[in-house]
Request: fold
Amino acid sequence: MTNKLEAIQRKFLWGSFGSDFKFHLVRWNIIKNPISEGGLGVRDLRLFNEALLGKWLWRYMNEKDSLWRRVIRSKYGDNGLGWYPSKPSGAYGQSLWRFIHKGWGRFFQHFSFKAGVGSSILFWHDRWCTEGPLRDSFPSLYVLTMNRDATIANFCQRGPSTFVWSPVFIRDALVDDTILPTFLSKLSDILLHDSADAVN
Reply:
């Protein structure tokens, strides 16, 4: 669809409608550049489409009580403790939501979680305290953890005036002596709150 729309834009720009053919004097990639960079500022329809689809995924994560989200969740289910939708399957292969879901891989890289109570954020898999998931930042610890699908709340102990991180590893003796202090130091800078978990 975007190819057809871009073809119409190109024909309009160069005036080559019907049987009239005109040579395209400038590459389309240059035309799409901003005016400040020598282009005409024509929108890249593929990127614009991805942005609009990403907006639906963003809304799915943030509008948890809205009717449309409840309909999508009941039809397709969700993953990640309710943060993102499951991949649609079945006979309705060309559904709009299936197309929106395709953008999840690219969209996922551009947000992180803000931990509140930590009960709906995966400790190792979600991005919440580093540039990426902790499983990627500390792979040698990830392979030794007892519970790879634990939430943040599973790995912290809270009291009236105390807060202690307590990730559990299979074999403490095999954990690299230089990596474990770095890992615990990174966690010590983070305090959970009584607010709900959110998306940044």
